[in-house]
Amino acid sequence: MIEKKDIRALTKEQLRDFFVEHGDKAFRGNQVYEWLWSKSAHSFEDMTNISKETRQMLENNFVINHIKVDQMQRSSDGTVKNAVRLHDGLIVESVLIPTENRTTACVSSQVGCSLDCNFCATARLKKMRNLNADEIFDQVSAINQESLLYHNHKLSNIVFMGMGEPLMNYNNVLKAIEKITSEEGLGMSPKRITVSTSGIPKMIKKLADDEVKFNLAVSLHSAIDEVRSKIMPFSKAFPLNDLKESLAYWYAKTGSRVTYEYVVWNGINDTKEAINALVKFCKYVPCKVNLIEYNPIDDGDFQQANPQAITDYISILEMNDIIVNVRRSRGKDIDAACGQLANKKS
Ligand code: SAH
């Protein structure tokens, strides 16, 4: 038996060609495309304005590899975590985070992760594969529907801070964002989308060359090479100087301020030396700093620094005119917070 093709791997043009080749009008391709993307059809059966014969013909040639939300958990703070089953049975997680004035989707880009950040639960899962563009899009669309259901409004923001390293699945992440921002997809503004990377200089430069319009966040956690490569061992291959240079290139091309994500831990980066190194790093490219609360991942090697250390960070950064926000963590009770996504069931 020939394996049926994933219909959503086709561009609109290819779909139009397919119909012409099969003796139909190119316009049919537009109709089907709309069902697949803006109407998020799960099956050919759903496509009610397409004739039965045509639907059968599509069925004979293609599959729709739609994701399935397997388990949904709701946190006491309103955060929702979806365990999402992919067509080959693998599972990833995505999260809906409601705050006062926005609803954010946090989505995964890979099944597992090939990086080795010691403080992150996802790093302990083997990287199984990259997600396809449609699997990324489906996560967003599922969360958008949940947002409408529970909060009566559409999703307002998207962060690529779920499982995986988005820049190691570059093409599919960009294709998914293209779809999310297009009128045929969800029509969201790229300014409301943030891609978070652990910092791969070559790929940051590629983003700049591609003149992307979304925001960039970098998980920095330390501006001292020796410390950073101890907690994020992969980063030995990407010294801070190279990272800095790629970010300057990003800013020169896009004019978009970079966000540094930063957790302060006891005995790791809670010193004045660490703060001063961060200040120096921040002076290089226009940026802002998000201090993220640490979400423990069980074995106790990392502990959130005491409040005084956080206060010191804030006051020294502010003294140097660097924008700093403190990000409270959400959904901790259902293992939905940053770094806790590890397919653990309740
Ligand atoms: N690979 C990408 C995106 C996924 S991680 C990246 O590294 O940016 C999303 C964010 O959660 C990153 O800033 C990461 O450093 C942070 N994070 C990971 N584990 C965490 C934990 N246990 N507590 C708090 N933040 C964590």
Overall pLDDT metric? 94
Bound compounds, each kind once, are: S-adenosyl-L-homocysteine
| Number of distinct beta strands | 14
Extract low-pLDDT stretches: none
Q: Biggest sheet, in brief?
A: 10 strands, mixed
The proportion of residues in beta strands is: 15-25%
The CATH superfamily of the largest domain turns out to be Aldolase class I
CATH class of the largest domain: Alpha Beta
* Termini separation: 40 Å
Short description:
The chain is α/β, with parallel strands linked by helices and 346 residues long.
What does this structure look like?
This protein has 346 residues and is an alpha/beta fold. It has two domains: 5-63, DNA polymerase, domain 1; 68-334, Aldolase class I (TIM Barrel), CATH 3.20.20.70. It is built from ten helices and 14 strands. The chain has helices spanning 12-21, 26-36, 52-61, 133-151, 170-181, 201-209, 225-231, 240-254, 272-282, 307-319, and strands at residues 5-6, 62-63, 68-74, 80-85, 91-98, 103-106, 110-111, 129-130, 157-160, 193-197, 215-219, 258-262, 287-292, 323-327. The protein has a ten-stranded mixed sheet with strand order 3-4-5-6-9-10-11-12-13-14, with helices on one face. A two-stranded parallel sheet has the order 1-2. A two-stranded antiparallel ribbon has the order 7-8. Strand 13, helix 10 (307-319) and strand 14 (323-327) form a beta-alpha-beta unit. The chain binds S-adenosyl-L-homocysteine.
